[in-house]
């Protein structure tokens, strides 16, 4: 059974054409067979198909690849957000509030909430999701979160090294040993990635390296939370470990930017965090101009960025981070795929997954131009 999506006013393929990284086509059509793209071209050359969907001049983009989320958690931190808006600074210690609520929540309650978030993501055009653990921080709870996340996606990340939980406050070393040993072994069957929050108040560079090395030895691939709350060694560690991505990158030295530019590590920017913590937005322009591959992701979590909206990330990136709308859409699709080292999503090429978002607009610019307005008409996934 073939489906032809036709009447596409502006198609973003992300297959570079004449210096246009978005590979933009006008008056295009896409043929879908068995969940994959079978043909892309000018609509007038399209072969007939059993099902024809005419999008009547709308823009179509690849489904968003949200490469950084924390969607399995319990509890509510809206009061913490409200206090921040009137001057209380963000502190990573708030993570422990969510850990307590998550440990207390039943499987069923966590699953129901998770499924609600996933539906929210899909309705906003996200067709590939990464999901982290990190609000369990004991063996049983981290395993539970990984198992629930794996029901949704293969892109599961073990973040046992999110913060040191309260019961290990006087025994950091013991906690790092637990993460690298028993906890890693229990979570490993569900996870693809190993992550660490390398930041003052969380884990230092040596602790972070130990966690990543243990994960790699167990067959996981590294990614890093770094340089969120201040300058530090997270970016350098990510590059040293050939991590797929280093996420946040809010505070970068020139040396960090140079290291990223000469590496295969993607800089994933999470502007929902700057919105919610009132830290300054990082300059995507500085990174792109230096030759760094930039991704955008939601970081959806109850502490620093409680939104699943990739269109909102695009709007922030365009308004506050020096990205053009085209660059921001690329970063939220192909950039996210690069951050997950995936070549089958984020791009509309023959053989790619048929993940398409049809916009309620004639061009992708509207994703930033009409912030806060639902712009996704339909998703193919
Ligand atoms: O990615 N940076 C570390 N972890 C989350 C925040 C977690 C929280 O405050 O609950 C983040 O922003
Ligand atoms: Fe995060």
Task: Please tell me about this protein's structure.
By secondary structure, the chain is of the alpha/beta class. It has 2 domains: 2-63 and 346-380, Urease, subunit C, domain 1; 64-339, TIM Barrel. Helix content is 35%, strand content 22%. The protein has 13 helices and 17 strands. The chain has helices spanning 78-85, 95-104, 107-123, 139-150, 172-187, 205-217, 234-240, 254-261, 271-277, 284-290, 310-320, 325-339, 366-369, and strands at residues 2-12, 24-33, 36-42, 51-54, 59-62, 64-66, 126-129, 131-132, 156-161, 193-198, 221-222, 224-226, 245-248, 266-269, 294-296, 356-359, 376-380. Strands 8, 9, 10, 11, 12, 13, 14 and 15 form an 8-stranded parallel sheet that branches. Strands 1, 2, 3, 4, 5, 16 and 17 form a 7-stranded mixed sheet that branches. It has a two-stranded parallel ribbon with strand order 6-7. Strand 9, helix 5 and strand 10 form a beta-alpha-beta unit. The mean pLDDT is 98. Bound molecules: N-(iminomethyl)-L-glutamic acid and fe (iii) ion. Fe (iii) ion (FE) is lined by residues 68, 70, 225, 299, 301.
